[in-house]
Amino acid sequence: MSLLTPLALLGALLAIPIILLYMLRLRRREVLVSSTFLWRQVVLDNEANTPWQRLRRNILLLLQLVILALLVFALARPFIIVPAVSAGQVELLLDASASMNATDVNGQSRFTQAKREALNILDTLGSDDAMTVIRVGDVPEVIAPATNDRGVLRRAINDAQPGNAGADWTAALTLAVADAVNSTGLDIVIIGDGGLGDAENLPGVPNPERVRYVPVGVSSSNLAITALATRALPGQQPELFAQITNYGPQDAPVIFDLRVDGDLLTAQRHVIPAGQDFSLVSTRLPDNFTVLQAGLTTTSDSTVPDYLASDNTAWTVSSEVGTRRVLVMSSGNLFLSQVMRSLPAIEAFAGNITSGLPSGNFDLYLLDGWLPDGDLPDGDILIINPPRSTNLFTVGDKREMRSTPVVAGNDPRMAFVDFSGVNILGYVPVSETPWADTLISADNEPLLLAGEVDGRQVAILTFDLHESDLPLQIAWPVLMANLLDWFTPRSAISAPNGLSVGESLAIRPPFEATAIRVTLPDGNQRDLPIDRDVMVFGETRLPGLYTVDILQGDSLLESAPFTVNLFALNESDITPRSEIRLSGATIAATGREEVGQREIWPWVVLAALLVLLIEWYVYHQRLSVRTLLRPVLLRQRAA
Known about the structure:
Blueprint: E1 2-3, H1 15-23, H2 40-47, H3 59-75, E2 78-84, E3 89-95, H4 110-123, E4 130-136, E5 141-147, H5 150-159, H6 169-182, E6 186-192, E7 211-215, E8 223-231, E9 239-246, E10 252-260, E11 263-272, E12 277-282, E13 291-298, E14 313-317, E15 324-329, H7 334-342, E16 346-351, E17 364-368, E18 381-384, E19 394-395, E20 399-400, E21 406-407, E22 426-427, E23 430-431, E24 436-442, E25 445-453, E26 456-461, H8 475-487, E27 499-500, E28 505-507, E29 515-519, E30 525-529, E31 535-537, E32 544-552, E33 555-565, H9 569-572, E34 579-582, E35 585-588, E36 594-599, H10 601-638
Parallel strand pairs: 3-4, 3-6, 6-7, 15-16, 15-17, 17-18, 18-26, 27-33
Antiparallel strand pairs: 1-2, 2-36, 4-5, 8-9, 9-12, 10-11, 10-13, 13-14, 19-23, 20-22, 21-24, 24-25, 25-26, 28-31, 29-30, 29-32, 32-33, 34-35
Helix pairs in contact: 1-3, 3-10, 4-5
């Protein structure tokens, strides 16, 4: 045993005044009385009352000296030499990924065990050693910079919490390696269950032999919902696809339940084979639903544990949420079919030109070389190669194009549209369109015009796609995407489904919007002032259903839900690893190979506290005895 601050032993000199206090006699106060006959004993006591007396055996004195000795010994910071995982300069990486929520360590989470391991490493650091603590979540965070202050490090470790997303080990190791390059003799200590993902191939980790790995976790038993999606084909009921994965070594019975907009739809029992996926396809979904929630519950008779709960629930929204319905009336234009399939959030319906316009509401009517008898449909319209005149425009005789097309580049509908390499055989001139802007022209005639008339948006492409090479140019999908965004602006959010925990969501508010409000799964709200065309919301650390509200003042312009799920193989597969690979090297679980110092002063202080309680008890016992004997002594003196 050694001492870190031996000068503190000088505090033992305080024993001298304690002993002197016990050698001092009591000084009694003088009292005038009419006679001293009854006070002879008092007089004798006064005569013998000298300043000092012989030191007698006293249990209180002994206990107080023991307390002093223990406190002085604690201030000297005694320590013992013990085996340690690491010593010197330590870069501690604490795994805070979703898998660390698994409760396979004596009913406690892996993260709780990881914190205990971190505190053990902290307790064995030497007086000159320093530690940096990095919490490795979806965004690595330095929760304690390099310091030898045990209090700061202990608070940082105790306050750390696991997340619900995967861990970015590549960024965390890059951060730790940067410190290792600038410091000699620095150890990198990884505490986790071993799922490093792509970081295992991270190059440039110097001295892999200085990397220590402390594994946590004991079991791989876990059931998870690993996929959930819906789709709706025209004229058919919505379909559900779900996938359940059993990562454990035993077949597991579960209850799989579905809730539609908060109401229970079905609950079924399934047995998931060990180490396999189990797929479910259902066509029993109701029409016009918005949110679907799936859940897993182990059966009451199951003996197979499910140690990770965060992947037992998943959410999805209807495939029709945020989707634009487009009716395509054409004689079979392959180019239109291909571009409709390639554009996101478009649900295209093919009509039959011989039967006329079908019933139903659509966001856009795309009329290719065909117009209905009578009036045009009451809605937004994109007309390609108009065959005749209507009440909105007049069509002339077909002409051959002689000049290069010119694009109105200052119009946002023509952003990134390049017609310089597009060849067109001919077009039909369209006139009497005061409501429209010319977006592309040639020979001083419009090739594409668009505008708003009678409360609807109308665009006209004045040539046949088959008489041009436009569908073979990159300008074709760009032009169609721009026009569809102008006709029926897409939902404010671009990914109602498919976000994983920790991923960011792009929000495109309309021009008139003044604020964005996002409601989190726990009911909390975040208000985002609009300061750019595309806003990014990154606070998606909770799995569940989110809602984005687009506001104009106090008015609600649009409300759109989106879901966030775990769906991460590295997190749901909670199998703990006994070794990891890093920069081509295999790093096995680290034993206690270094020499560390474990300070024992907390135990010494605890012993001093116990002795203090004993001293307090003895003192009050003596006080009680004196109180009881005082009447007897007074009677004896009176006699």
